[in-house]
Every structure is written in structure tokens, then in C-alpha cells.
Fold:
Amino acid sequence: MSKKLYKDVNGYKIEDRFTGLSNDLKIEMLRKMYEIRHFENEAEQFIIRGMIHGTCHLYTGEEATAVGAICAIQSDDYITSTHRGHGHCIAKGADLNIMMAELLGKKTGYSKGKGGSMHIADVRSGNLGANGVVGGSIGIATGGALTCKMKKNGKIVVCFFGDGAANQGIFHSSINIASIWDLPVVYLCENNVYGMSTSVKEAFNIKRISDRKYAYGIEGLTIDGNDLIEVFNTISYFAGRCRTGKGPVLVESLTYRWSGHSKSDAQVYRTREEIKEWKERDPIKRYREILISRKIITEKDDSDLEKEVMNKIQKASEFARESPFPDPSEVEDDVYA
Amino acid sequence: MLKNNARQLTYLEALREAMQQKMRADNDVYLIGEDIAEYGGAFGVTVGMLEEFGSERIRNTPISEEAIIGIAAGSAITGMRPIAEIMFSDFITIAMDQIANQAAKICYMFGGKARVPMVIRTAGGGGTGAAAQHSQSLEAIVAHIPGLKVVMPSCPYDAKGLLISSINDDNPVIFIEHKLLYKNKKYTNSVPEEMYEIPLGKGDIKKGGSDISIVATSYMVQKSLEAAEKLSLEKGIDCEVVDIRTLKPLDIDIILNSIKKTGKLICVEEAPVFGGFMGEVVAQVSEKGFDWLDAPIKRVAGRNCPVPYSLVLEQEMIPGVERIEKGILDLLG
Structure:
């Protein structure tokens, strides 16, 4: 049985793998997006109440990219994440309690309070870590893919990075090596329009970041990153291509961060109208409406699901708040393995 | 030191043998770096390894130091044990984000839940006329960063045992080799054929003595030994030469024990004296061994300038046997 075509774009015949998924999986993706949205809402509350010792970068508005891409790969595949990493971490299957505890610097957190928001990693779930350095994880993702190739374990790596990272040297040198060695990496550029305050219009003289694929002799595409189905189908297609040894790809996912860059951003570089426009393209709203119109869920199922997620987030928040801080005597533990 | 084996190897041969034996024993060990395949590495350390292990495991890269280290680190977290070669230690600066912010900190940032077993082999030191960008001794920069281990072997026997230990270690190790030791027949020594480890964090008394302790690293150990021999013959001064071998972890005990005996300390290193690693040795000795000292500590180190080109200038910048001798005589009054 030949699969239905989702899109024939730039010569890529991208199959519609979404439609054939079970309803459970389709609903699971909505749940994951809600988890990210409400996790970030709670994190924002922490920021407002001064409970975050340090900073925090929220993924709100970009949920479809993390969830669509990560649901399109296998659970034992690897990802690398960014400083705006909560969404990737949740989508890859991290425990919300342990994540929340890490944000508050608690002993029960993923890094025992040593990493915080910017260094959350859940290595067991294949998440090789958020990264405080813009572009810092592109080399690590490429190395993970080298392991996959050398060990012939059939795994691939999805490397998340932002538009800002695409102008770092490590982007160039890593993708070039991945290309000459045919490494199985999906380089997934989340173009959320701003690198801190600098617009992509000021930072690039090309229309599409994915056009940089030509410089490395690899394949790639620009997609609507706020359309979960488009992200899912495209990453499924390119991940499959990587898995057959055809080398890396560069996908640009167009999206937008709703909140400021970090907790100290006055957002003087963008207009309310622009934010409003993007909020109308809310990835969760769009996906929810599709599921309702296709009768996969009802309005009530949807609101029940959202309430269930909000409950779970509240429990995670309580767990984090009630968890103990690390003991000062632990400060030099884990410097070395 | 094992002395039952008469086989003499150069420093370079000892390094190569360590890598070959580890690669035969463990499929997860591989090499990544520039010109390490057919060419055999800029200094010839990996000659012949492509033929034995193939291009899958001897991974020749484009000129991309940052990616070499990033890829090594990423592969290390996911189960490999890479040995990355950075042609000149000066070029670690190009890869510094990946070394200092990534490889060094991953274990700690992730609460001990990830390991980064990788070795960065690199050629340091001057005396080759290669001037400012190919002659530096940057060990203090990397030794300062928590999460890294730093190793600087001074002879073939140590080179093999320390490299095997570094490959077996679950942390990122900066392994700094000295260009003037690689092929130098003057510094060959007896190297056992079998695999052996020299633990990281254990110094070695290269020559016992009772009048003064000389603490040195890498090529400066050899120069210190030459100075010690001359002073013994010419002046009857009995120097003890302590080779710390690994800067991090540092075997401070071997230094303190030596000072207990001699009461005098001179530190010798090639790097510019300001902010050099021996400043750390001096600080620890003054904190922990002040009572045993009966003279001020002296440092003989590189001058505070980039390594110059012209031979006369280069010899002025980098300490040699004469400067070490003079330092010792000044200290002994």
C-alpha cells in the first residue's frame, strides 16, 4: 500500500504519515504541547515571584516544533537542545517533577540543582542536554551521530538550534563534517525570528536559512514550525532518509517565541502587533481545531485534557517547591566522573 | 619504573604504541584530527595507523578544530572513547568553547549523569623556530578549568603509561606532548611492550637528591636533569628532580615530601611566568609546606612575551639548562 502524499515540495515527496497514526498518538501530541505550554506558564510564575535564581528562557509559542519533531523519531534516538530547552526536554519524555525541581535549584532536579534551566539534560531519554552557549550543541549532536554510525545502532540525532546559532562557526564546521561523513543528523533550525533582540532580517542576507544546505551539499527545507502536522511529516521523512545512511539534512522551522528572550527582556525590538499576529498562529490552537474537526476529540475531551495537564503541572510545582535544596557540601561533587 | 625491558623507544613511538594497543583492545577507541591518516599527523605520531585501523577509526577531518572537539565530546557522551589530535596546542583556543564550556562541564552541569571520556592530544612547547602561534605552552589555561585533567609527559615510558591511563579515564583529558621530545633519540628510554598504566595524579622522582628540589614538567624535566647533572659534576650540588607528570590532578604530596628533605624549591616551566601553572605549585607549597622551606621559592620560566622567531630571542624567552643552573645557584646563594 503506497502512502498518501502530504506535500510535494522542492522535489521532496513527503508522505502523510500523520493521518495513519493511532488516535492515542495524535492526542498524546496535543498533551505534550499542553504540558510544555503550562510548564512554561508555571515557570513564568516562578520568575515573577522571584523563585528562579538566575534566568529562564521560555519555549511558549514554539511547541509544535519540539513535539512534532520528537514524535517523528524513535524513543531511543538522540536529541540535543538549546538554552530554550524545556520544550525539547518535555517532548523527549522527561519527568515534569524532576525538571521543575531543577528550575528551582533543588537536590531532586535532573542535575541535582547544579545545572538549572539552561543545563537540563535527561541523558537516559536520549536528550544530550540543553546548552547555555548558542550553537554549543551542534558539535555534540554531530558527535552523537558519529557514534550512531560507528556503532551501527540505527539511531539518529535531531539537533535543535536557533536562528542565532546558524551564524556561529560551529554550525559551519559541524555540518560540513556531517555532510562529508554522511552522519545521521537532522539539523533543525528553530527560526523564532530573534536572536535575543537581533532580528533575522539584520542577521542574514538570505531569505531562508535552509538555503545554506547548498553550501554543504545536503538536503533540506523550510517549514511552518507552528503546524504540528507539517513538522511531524517533514521530520518523519527526513529522519527516515538519515536512517538509511544518506547523510544529514537541514530543516528550518519557522516559529516565534511569545515571551521575551529571558526574564530581563523589555522587548523594545518588536511591536505588540507582531506578537499578536503570531499568537493568532498559536500552534496548539491550530492542532486542537484539526483534532476536533476530524472528530478525534471533542471540545470536552480537549478541555478535560488541558485540565489534567494543568493538574500535573501543579503537582510538579508542588514537588519542586517542597523538595530540599542541595547540601552545600555537595558543591564539588560531580566535577569528575 | 620497570627496568626489566631493554627495548628503547622514542616518545613518539611510545605514544603511537599506546594508541595502537588501546585500539586493538577496545573498538570504542578511535582517532579524530587533521592530517592524521595518510600523512600520519603533523609530527608523525599516527604514521601507519590508517593502514592498520582503516578510515572509519582514523578519522581525518577538514581544518575544523571546534568541530573536532565538539564531535569528540558528543561521541564520548554516547559511548565512544575518542582521541582527538589538535595539531598544535595553540589551536585549542579555536576549540575553546567546546573544551571549556562543553566537554569540561557536561558531567557537572548534568549532575554526574553524563560522562565525557575523551583525550585531546596536542603538541605544545617551543624551541622549533615556529614563533608566536605554534610554540605556546597553554597548560595553565586548561588546568584552571574544573572538569579537565591535564597531563604532560616528559619521557617515552611516561608517555605510554599516561596515555593509556588517559584513554581509560572517564573524563576529558588534555594530553600535552612536547615537540622537541617526539623523535629525539637523546631522550629514548626503556618502554615495556605490554600495556601499562601510570595513574593520573602521581608524580615521579626522576632523580633523587638532598640539596634542592626542582619541580618541572614535560621538556623542562629533561633540561632540569641536564642542569642537575652539570651541577653535580661541577659543584657537587645534589638536586632532586620532581616530574609532576600530571598538572591536574596535582600530586602535591610528592613535592612536599621532597621539600621536607631539601628545604629548597625551584619550579621550572616553559610558559610565561606570569600566571603560569607553577604559581599554583608555589601557592600550595607556601600554604602546606612553609615550615619546611629554608629559602624563598624561585621560579625559572618563560619570559612574559609571545614566543619570538629569531633563535637568539627564542632562547632568551624559553628557559634552558643555563638559566636553570643559574636559578639554582642564586637560590643556594
